[in-house]
């Protein structure tokens, strides 16, 4: 596991939506076929919100649905929302609300049986963790300003920190 995130909601800065339950009967943009769509549909089913889901083919198209005022929220992985808003320079126009509605661990995928690559990845991640360089790299891309000047502003979470401690990161 190299990163942990989950489904969150992006809403226009002035929106009265603060929590997922505030979406009762409202339209929400999701990217078709994603784990975020599945999480939102399950949350809707369990809470009887009668949310109207509008699907898009990709995250930029989903953001366009939100920016044109047709949808009240966009559901996606927290980090994808933050990155998309930073990349499109719209971070000040939207805010993320509510708790994460899913748990989405990210990992590195490689061909089964590729022991050399598996060893290289393990050795590299372990070295970065033991030297604490991985914390510096994380802060460089997720906390401090990006080369573009935008800021994602996402401190390392407990789950990721614990995962890195298992690789050798000294406890904080």
Short description:
Helices cover 40% and strands 18% of the residues. It has 172 residues and is an alpha/beta fold.
Features of the shown structure:
172 residues, alpha/beta, D-Maltodextrin-Binding Protein, domain 2, 2 domains, 5-stranded mixed beta sheet
Descriptive report:
With 172 residues, the chain is of the alpha/beta class. It folds into two domains: 3-105, Periplasmic binding protein-like II (D-Maltodextrin-Binding Protein, domain 2); 108-167, no CATH class. The protein has helices spanning 35-47, 59-67, 78-87, 115-130, 133-142, 158-167; strands at residues 3-5, 7-12, 27-31, 52-56, 73-77, 94-97, 104-106. The chain has a five-stranded mixed β-sheet. Strand 3, helix 1 and strand 4 (52-56) form a beta-alpha-beta unit. The protein is globular and about 50 Å long. The mean pLDDT is 93.
């Amino acid at each position: 596991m190299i990163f942990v995130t989950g489904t969150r909601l992006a809403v226009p800065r002035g929106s009265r939506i603060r929590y997922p339950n505030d979406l009762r009967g409202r339209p929400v943009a999701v990217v078709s076929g994603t784990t975020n769509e599945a999480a939102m549909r399950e949350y809707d089913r369990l809470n009887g919100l009668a949310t109207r889901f509008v699907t898009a083919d990709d995250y930029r198209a989903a953001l366009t649905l939100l920016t044109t005022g047709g949808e009240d929220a966009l559901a996606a992985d927290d980090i994808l929302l933050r990155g998309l808003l930073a990349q499109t320079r719209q971070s000040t126009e939207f805010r993320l609300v509510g708790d994460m509605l899913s748990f989405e661990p990210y990992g590195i995928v490689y061909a089964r049986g590729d022991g050399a690559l598996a060893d290289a990845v393990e050795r590299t991640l372990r070295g970065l963790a033991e030297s604490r360089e991985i914390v510096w790299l994380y802060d460089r891309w997720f906390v401090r300003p990006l080369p573009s000047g935008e800021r994602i502003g996402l401190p390392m979470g407990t789950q990721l920190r614990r995962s890195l401690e298992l690789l050798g990161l000294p406890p904080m």
